[in-house]
Amino acid sequence: MEDRSENLRSFYASLVCAAAKVSGTRIEQAFRTVKREPFVGPGPWLITLGGHDYVQTPNDDPAFIYQNTLVALDSAQSLNIGMPSAHAYWLGACELKEGETVLQVGVGTGYYTAILAQLVGPGGRVHGYEIDENLADRARENLKGLPQVNVQPRSGIAPDLPKADLIYVCAGAAEPARVWLDALHPGGRLLFPLAPAGVLGGMLLVKRPDQGAVWPAKFFGRAQFIGCVGLQDEDAGRRLTEAFLYGWERVQSLRLDNAVDDTCWFAGHDWWLSTAEVDAAGEN
Asked: Is 73 domain-assigned?
């Protein structure tokens, strides 16, 4: 049975990473290494391609979970283990290195936490935050063999977050939480869905400069997640829905000031996204 599971993971990793255009990388090896069975729970399972109805697998054959699909953790809340190729693509954009420290917000049962742990290696750290205590308990059990990982059953927007090289957010937000920005080392990256609950938004990658209020930023595709508690705003959600109808691909920087100009794509409270490059404003 182990040989079959290994063969399924090998095919699955190749399929997922080919779709994400990150084939032949450490990311592919991580997907090949991490077993999916503990994280999805006992079958049969409900799976979906996203934006479509769930389909129940006929039995608990693990071949069904080694596909490029979402697997339901709680179908009533549309809470899933996310699309593998999307996460492979986003992880490629993050350029995560061995030995780095990651904060993951929205751990679920820990599948992508385990992928992150493979990428940072035994010399790195992954701090996971999961506000749902039941999910956090499942994640801790699933990840207990990875000493570089710790999972805390609390909010990922707490004021005492440890410093990190990457903050990887798996819950939709109407804004970049200031505590995330403050927790980044210089050169650190924040990847989060600018997509409050019910909004098809985008996955935004932000990099912290050595200094200054202008940070490089770029969207890596569209994204929709279950909402991050504490970072929801109905008005921002309506405005983001309209903003994503045009021009989101042109965003190049996050501005942490009130000097909004005609390069503004979207403005929040004390932050805005610009289509201008960082260097164009004379910032480093």
From this structure: yes
Record the pTM.
Answer: 0.95
Q: Beta 264-267 vs 272-274: how paired, if at all?
A: antiparallel
**Gyration radius from the chain CA atoms:** 19
Structure tokens given for 208: 């912290």
Q: Is residue 36 part of a domain?
A: yes
The token pair that represents 201 in the structure block: 């938004």
Give the H or E element holding residue 190: strand 184-194
Distance CA 143, CA 30 (A): 14
Q: How far apart are CA 29 and CA 227, in angstroms?
A: 30
Q: Per the domain annotation, does 258 fall within a domain?
A: no
Q: Which residues of 117-133 are buried (b: 16+ CB within 10 A; e: fewer)?
A: bbbbeeebbbbbbbbbe
pLDDT tens for each residue of 143-175: 999 999 999 999 999 889 999 999 999 999 999
Task: Kindly indicate the confidence band of residue 281, based on its pLDDT and cuts at 50, 70 and 90.
Answer: very low
Report the pLDDT averaged over residues 99-112: 98
Say which amino acid occupies 22: V
Ramachandran area for residue 21 (φ above 0: left; ψ -120 to 50: alpha; else beta): left
Q: Could you give the number of structural domains in the chain?
A: 1
Structural domain includes residue 51: yes
Domain that holds residue 41: 1-82
